[in-house]
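Retro notes, structure queue

What went well: the backlog is down to a handful. What didn't: a couple of records were mislabeled last round, so from now on we paste the full input next to the output in the thread. Example, using Aminotransferase, class I/II from Gemella bergeri ATCC 700627:
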Amino acid sequence: MSFFSTLGQNLILPKDVLIQSKETAAVKGAVNATIGIATKNKKAIGLDKIDEIISEINKTEYLPYSPTSGLPKLRELWKKKILKDNNTLDEKYLSLPMVTTGITQGIDTVANLFSEKGDALLLPNLFWQNYAQIYSVKLENKIYRYTQFNNKNNFNLENFEEILYSIKENKISIILNFPNNPTGYTPSINELYSLVNIIDSFAKKNPTKQLIIISDDAYFGLFFEKNHKNSSLSFTAKLSDNENCLVIKLDGITKEFYSWGLRIGFITYYTKDSNLKNIILEKTQGYLRSTTSSPTNLSQQIAIRLLTSSAAIDQKIKNDKLIEERYNILKETIADQKLENEVTILPFNSGYFFTIKMPDNINAHEFRLKFLHEYKYGVYSMDDRHIRIAFSCLDKEIIPDLIKKFKECVINF
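Corresponding output:
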């Protein structure tokens, strides 16, 4: 006898990064480079200002319920931030952000509001696995995958276009996750222009198809290369000219303010249809009400103070520079060790991660276990071919040794 619904039967706890991170923690002395967090000396970096803020907040401020859509002051502050980061946007088309319990709830909310069985989701071949759990397992969307990089290791606009035009479903969600998890890639200005132009042309040629364009900006701001410091929303906003396109931005303080456990995310809509915007905001609030009811007041109070504190901003910038320093050391070490003679390094220029495509004769899962138990480094095997490494977790002194040992492990596999 089974008590489960069909959804309950289909849901699984994937053997993903959380499980592999736990396995790494069980190995004495192992360095954990699996999970999307920034650490120093194996402890979360964070912002020192948070400790000060917590000690100052009065319980009369954080114990009451928050409004379902979030604290008005926080929503206004985040909208101002979005407009500052995307100075080409028209303010009147940008909605007031709605507060979510992390960006994951934002993804789940927009998925449930706009997708159902019989719809499609377009993703790169390498993506965050929770997308599949939400869209495919829970909502029975069909997932279409384009190959993110071509044989020359360039962003594969041609395949994106080919797969988009192959989709037969009438409603298509497109998630643009830059900086990308797991590859750590943000397209160049020209690549983003071309990508959006492909979507724009498709929308115009297929007026009966509905397109939901979602920017998952979880790692927004961690851009390390000139010409790749680009906000997706600044480019996708033009798609709002099409009546069959809805533009959405998902982001939060999680990575941007080194506040992973505070679980504050945002959903923001960009549409020229003011009536539609009002309806969507009401529906979004209704969905949030039916799930978490209201977001955590304490975390929002902290977020408000972080966004209005010059000290917190300075600490954030310092942490950003620390991650960038690790990125630069990583790039230099990969070149010095000539690691690309042994494996394929997928392009990366931003975020927390980079991804390695293993040779045909090496199974990534088996390699991960060997690297963990024999070399004491925990990395994330996404599938049979790809390894993701979170350099955000690595103190700069460790990076050269990890790359050296990785190469050694490949050669001795």
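Agreed that this is the format going forward. Reviewer comment attached to the example: The chain has a mean pLDDT of 96.
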